[in-house]
Amino acid sequence: MKNAAGTPGRLIDIYAAQCEKCLKWRKINSQEVYEEIRSKIQEDPFVCEKREGMSCGDAGDLDYDSSRTWVIDKPGLPKTPRGFKRSLVLRKDYSKMDAYYITPTGKKLKSRNEIAAFIDANQDYKSAPLGDFSFTVPKVMEDTVPCGIYERTPKASKGSQ
Ligand SMILES: [Zn+2]
């Protein structure tokens, strides 16, 4: 479910959630709303009706296909603490994504230790629960990676032309 789609820029540019009932993908307008849905998806599955004026009868907003690269998040990941921003960058070889957090002061934090140190040194943010920072990255869906990217690790050829 929920996913987000990378682009040539290798940053997430579209957030989407999949309806539990009709399996259509619905565009989610902001990272914040997306994270809210993702954090509760296990107890509160996403359905089309959650989008205002939308129902399962409406056409999907986007299709899961290789016209864009899809990455699928782990359900239940916590919502990013207020003031911080979670950022994901797709590696050049499309092998995986890397996660980091940007603090309210614009600092980039790349590990749980860096976050703990930042919160320790900045008591203003001590209300941000350490457990709500997660470096669990979404899975890059290999079948949506542009052709040629995986050619460097050739699979056994079937021998037909
Ligand atoms: Zn639906």
From TrEMBL:
Positions of the MBD domain: 70-140
Residue span, CW-type domain: 9-64
GO MF annotation: an example: zinc ion binding
Record key words, sorted: DNA-binding, Metal-binding, Nucleus, Transcription, Transcription regulation, Zinc, Zinc-finger
UniProt-listed CDD domains: MeCP2_MBD
Keyword Nucleus attributed: yes
Gene3D superfamilies: Methyl-cpg-binding Protein 2, Chain A
Plastid in keyword set: no
Cited InterPro entries: DNA-bd_dom_sf, Methyl_CpG_DNA-bd, Znf_CW
Pfam families membership: MBD, zf-CW
Localization (cell): Nucleus
GO cellular component, one term: histone deacetylase complex
Name of the protein this chain belongs to: MBD domain-containing protein
Organism: Arabis nemorensis
